[in-house]
Amino acid sequence: MTFVIATLVIILGVIIFSFTVSNIILITFFAIPFTKKLEKISLLKTNYIVSSYIIKLIIQIFILFATTTIFYIYFLNGTFISLMIGYAFGAIGIITKIKQFSLNMNNFSDYFEINKDYFWEELIAKYNEDKNKLLEFIVAASDKFDDNSTRKEIGNKI
User: Fold this and answer.
1) pTM metric for this prediction
2) Residue 46: which pLDDT band, with cuts at 50, 70 and 90?
3) What is d(CA 134, CA 142) in angstroms, rounded to the nearest whole number?
4) What residue ranges are annotated as transmembrane (predicted)?
């Protein structure tokens, strides 16, 4: 029975660590910097996206620490060790996929779908036409346009 419980806790540790830490990494190294880039080139209607990501980040960190603390306080025996082993396996899984946390089409598509309400209508139309072209434009625009560019100037370039 101990083996079954340890195995279940290891699986739980992998799941919790993988989902929370991968979300923490994705928000910290992709979503927030990408949002700042979009804000800089005036492609968003509002600046509320970063604050929503910070709230999501705090929730993810809380889940990770709360789970760890609960297992540490109540199950300090072998179950806590099993959780740490699960975390280690989760960390290995994240390390093997670390390149997936950068700007790529999958992350861009997810980001755009989640935050669609914050984009200007012209960008939504371009996104529906050709996602790849819009992503290339955003990457190029963030390198070209300075803070003085207006949304209309950028819209004309699309």
Assistant:
1) 0.79
2) confident
3) 12
4) 6-32, 53-74, 80-98
